[in-house]
């Protein structure tokens, strides 16, 4: 429904008709239409960015097939410094988000990223439960690689990907899974699915009456602000821009305040999802990643 509606909106010019279709999509699909706007367009592939890569296909326990990219570190004969599991935002697919992490292989880090069900070349229809299942499927594949488990492993989630990353990391830590996580980075992430759904529905006059009942269709156990403390003692870095027009700054502040130690907050000044166009912000993330490099496990 979200994908079909997004395409319709591109061709509609009458504001009232557009508003009615958006409202109908939200009411019929619950809050899923607030979170997921996938497409299957290939915007760029890693080779166009001078990166080596491998297409990865994973089968989920409930019958979906996920597509991802493995980008090996450009280590020049040295051991990789670690691995970053990148979870992208709620629109398009990995090919439109790859620039956010394309700079990491040159810095010595492997990168693995997947498309959630319904995105890109992954099968199925996007929803919160399915996406949570998908990110754990991808992470289990990643940590079982022979060339990954003995070096630091970090999760980097942007926007929706950060919310999924909080759920994954908190459960991984609480279950004492191995290998252990070395750090979690959240960039432009909302503090909770229910909270951001209410904000988005409240901002639109046709969906305003549905903000409370629809937000309660989201299970409460996925609220990041209530789960982030469970990641401790794994270090957490929260990144948020004062100019984020999609996920307001107060969401990052709330996540940081709720997180346990050790934690770090990076206040930025870019548009949503544009953090890594600024070299200084890349350096701050590299410093955080480097703190987890304590040698072979």
Automatic annotation (TrEMBL):
SUPFAM superfamilies: alpha/beta-Hydrolases (SSF53474)
Coiled coil location: none
Superkingdom, natural source: Bacteria
Residues covered by the Serine aminopeptidase S33 domain: 79-191
PANTHER family given in the database record: ALPHA/BETA HYDROLASE DOMAIN-CONTAINING PROTEIN, PROTEIN ABHD13
Protein name according to UniProt: Serine aminopeptidase S33 domain-containing protein
Species for this entry: Marinobacter pelagius
């Amino acid at each position: 429904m979200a994908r079909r509606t997004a395409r319709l909106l591109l061709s509609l010019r009458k504001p009232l008709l557009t508003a009615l279709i958006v409202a109908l999509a939200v009411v019929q699909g619950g809050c899923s239409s607030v979170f997921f706007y996938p497409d299957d367009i290939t915007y760029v592939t890693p080779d166009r960015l001078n990166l080596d890569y491998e297409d990865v296909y994973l089968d989920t326990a409930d019958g979906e097939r996920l597509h991802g990219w493995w980008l090996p570190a450009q280590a020049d004969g040295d051991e990789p410094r670690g691995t970053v599991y990148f979870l992208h935002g709620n629109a398009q697919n990995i090919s439109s988000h790859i620039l956010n992490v394309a700079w990491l292989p040159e810095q010595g880090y492997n990168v693995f990223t997947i498309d959630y069900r319904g995105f890109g070349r992954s099968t199925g229809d996007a929803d919160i439960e399915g996406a949570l299942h998908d990110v754990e499927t991808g992470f289990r594949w990643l940590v079982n690689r022979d060339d990954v488990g003995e070096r630091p492993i970090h999760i980097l989630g942007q926007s929706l990907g950060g919310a999924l990353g909080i759920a994954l990391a908190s459960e991984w830590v609480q279950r004492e899974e191995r290998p252990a996580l070395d750090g979690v980075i959240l960039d432009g992430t909302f503090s909770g699915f229910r909270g951001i759904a209410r904000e988005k529905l409240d901002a639109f006059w046709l969906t305003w009456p549905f903000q409370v009942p629809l937000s309660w269709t989201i299970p409460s156990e996925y609220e990041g602000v209530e789960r982030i403390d469970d990641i401790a003692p794994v270090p957490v870095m929260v990144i948020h821009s004062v100019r984020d027009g999609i996920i307001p700054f107060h969401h990052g502040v709330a996540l940081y305040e709720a997180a346990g130690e050790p934690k770090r907050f990076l206040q930025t000044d870019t548009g949503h999802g544009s953090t890594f166009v600024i070299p200084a912000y890349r350096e701050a993330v590299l410093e955080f990643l480097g703190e987890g490099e304590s040698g072979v496990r």
